[in-house]
Amino acid sequence: MDPKLVDDIHRGTSYDLGQQPLLPGSPTGRPKGKQRRKPRLPLGCFWPLWSECVPLEKKTHGTPDWGALGVNVMAGLIMGVRESLGGIVSASLLFSSDNLEISSMLQFGISMTLYTMTVGVLWYSVFGRLQYGYGTQQDLICILQASLASKAARLLRDDPERIPATVVCIICFSSILSGFVSIVVGKLAWATSMLMIPKPVVSGFLGAIGVVVLQAAFKTASGVPFHYFWPDIGIRAFCSSQDRLLQVGCMLLHFICIRKGPDLCHVLLQTDKSGAKFASRKDAVKKYAGLVCQLAPLVLFYGCVFGAGVGMEDLAAHGWTYPKEGSSGPLTIWTTYSLEDVDFHVVRMILFSVDIVALVAMAILCTMLGALAITGRYPTGPSGDPQPDDPLDFNAELITVGAASLFLGCTGGNLVFHKFSVIQLREDGGTHRVAVLTIALVAGNLFIFGCPIGSYVPKWFLGGLFMNTGWSFLKKTLLSYETLTTFNWRGVHLVSPQYGISSCCVLMALYFSPTTSILAGLCLSILLFVLDGMTTSPVNSVVDGQHVVSRTKRPWWEMSVLAAEGDRIRLLYLQGQLFFGSMLQLTSNLEAAAADSRIEFVILSYGRVPLIDPSAAENIKLAQDKMAKFGCHVIHCRMNEQVFGTLSAAGAVRKPSADLLMRIQTLGWRYHGSVVCNSDEHPDAFFHETDCLDYCNEYLVQNFSYNVASPTPPLEEYMREYREVICNEHRRLSESAFERMNDLPGGVMGQLRQFCEVRVDEPAGKNLSDELPSMTRAMCFIFKGALSLVQIVPVVEKPDKLETHAFSFRRGKRLLSRYPPGHVAGIEIFFKFHQQRVEENLQPKLIVSSLLGPPAEVWILRYDGWQDIPGWKQMPDSLKGYLARMLCVQFADTLKHANLKER
């Protein structure tokens, strides 16, 4: 396998997942105009178009471009030879075993591989989406299948005659199973879920495969099994055979030729730099250097062998080649073994093992990685593609490749999936399906004529190919630390712990199977995730009640009380998924807060918490019970459905507020409790942070101002009247109290009344701002009830694609401020520059609040007046002066409140 192609596996930065639009109907960058849609089959595959099959002239639109057609055919021929050599490697990896029955199946395995390659490439050339793509059998799966074959051979050691047929049956059934699962995953649109396997685990698994392949290289070249890169028979016995040493030496020279040969060719090319001639020669070297460096040692070897008069029988007798079994026709793979020789009990044991699960998962993952690598390198289709800028449908790719594997498994072949050498094919000029068909023809000819290729390929040659593949995998894994971040430990920069996952997988491969190594990598990833969760604080920020208030505005004397006593409140913004590993810091902080005698309320906001597990909820409940004994009450807010259900099931939420209980019943959420908070109890759950702060602020104001004999600051009559209006929904604030609250001279509100529209019974939920054009420039003086300033936020159809699941009962509405009696709402939109354009759709809306005793009484003052009611412009200057002073103070107070209110 070309190391350049193997390197593409690890180029995660080149994979482009951003081809799909973020929002429905957003532009994708494709040119305007009508485009021809590709016909689609019922199964989900595609049907090819003529423009995809052969390159066409741009002017005539139908006449083949013979020059480009020749380039495609030549690229297909070169890639067909490369894939045929790769097929021999795959077959050798699959049937290289200590068991004699399995190793004797090499020629059969080559025929099976060529058949698989022919059908797989042909299948994708007809039904695939990429007109230059194809799928074939690959080394990675062959290594996993070789492990299954070895396990079957051990189970059948007492009945060795059944081993070959049983191994073939296992290969076919693994192909059928992989194809079926791929189709199901594609149909359920779960393709991208396979990309959630951590990158260090995939890198470590590929490194583990590299270790296995390197061991197979030494074993294939020498004929001696290697463990931990050491011969089983001992180094002295190994060196006693001249043939072994020579074959290992040839293998190492072949490996060096593959790795360094193309670079040497490029260096030699530098001797001639004469314009176009130099450029054409450089392109030729780029295309053919790798193939020449792979085949040149083989040609040189046979030249020396035949020149010395050594025959093929002598080479086989000395172990340099596999024994010649004669020519085999295309029917060999269906006639060599029969179902009567299959031990189906062993087949069932293998198919229901963990190894087969890893094989199927890796087949699907490799399909996804292959599609990502190809589209990442070439995000736009070549000429002839009817939709060159459309994103690749990974689900359709899984269905197409899965159907091919299913068909091959039923007809005696192996499973296939995307191969990274597709990138090399397109670089060589193979842009249309005719190039892919050429690859299928090359493999098909070799399969039909049944030439015993395995007998003519020396073992050292296969070992060199193995070593090149294994080194490519292993090198990228060992050097993967270059793409990872570092952390500072006592002044020393160390590589990320994620690198330990890859290294552990490589070490595990020395002692165990590749499947065990990937399971170990997954376990390490989970362990690191838990450790990170334990060291990462679930608390995003902590604010005390002196620096944060609710979105309900309060008069100045109540704000003075909160400034003095607000530190009795703590607001904790939690973040991330809460689980058993992340709760140690949170519970310790909660218990530390309970030790402070001044802290009476701890508010936990779950707006950034998408998930909480039962153990974390139980820990919160235990900490909550301990804090209650010290007089500190925990209040939960802004929970989504899962968080609320888990907390209520654990008993952490037992007394939700009446408003919250009504809302969750409307939404149909499950509530595990049945207790509603009584008037003398503190609720433990609210809808939003502002509701929690409203309750806590109200508690502090009541207990440290209105219920105190000598409050600070002292209470005057208008202050007590305001309190009675807030507590009694049938009371209204008098004009004199309004004037005293805003430091206005007596009688000003009586003068203002004639310039305002007085509305006495405005029901809750009434949107005053929608009364256009009368409310274009208007402000409201509030005497009863409250007005809410609400911002209308457009919501996308699928918010879960762009944002976390936040707790929100009113989608598209966000409360900015709530104005109680004695305040003025709408100052922001009342004044403007003369030429300023105000977009009504972007302005916040004034809505009558359902709190503080609706219906509301508001006086609406308009800038230009309305109907027969005069407005600000008709107002005398003396009255304007009083109001302007009051409005400036109110506006300044609004800015201060905006800096303090919770976000």
UniProtKB/TrEMBL annotation:
Residues 559-651 form the STAS domain. It is a multi-pass membrane protein. Gene3D superfamilies: STAS domain. The chain crosses the membrane at residues 73-96, 108-126, 163-189, 201-218, 288-310, 356-378, 398-422, 434-457, 499-531. It comes from the Eukaryota. Residues 1-39 are annotated as: Disordered. The lineage of its organism: Eukaryota, Sar, Alveolata, Dinophyceae, Suessiales. Residues 1-13 have a biased composition (Basic and acidic residues). This is STAS domain-containing protein. InterPro entries: Membrane-Transporter-like, SLC26A/SulP_dom, STAS_dom, STAS_dom_sf. It is found in: Membrane. The keyword Transmembrane applies. Keywords: Membrane, Transmembrane, Transmembrane helix. Signal peptide: none annotated. It comes from Durusdinium trenchii.
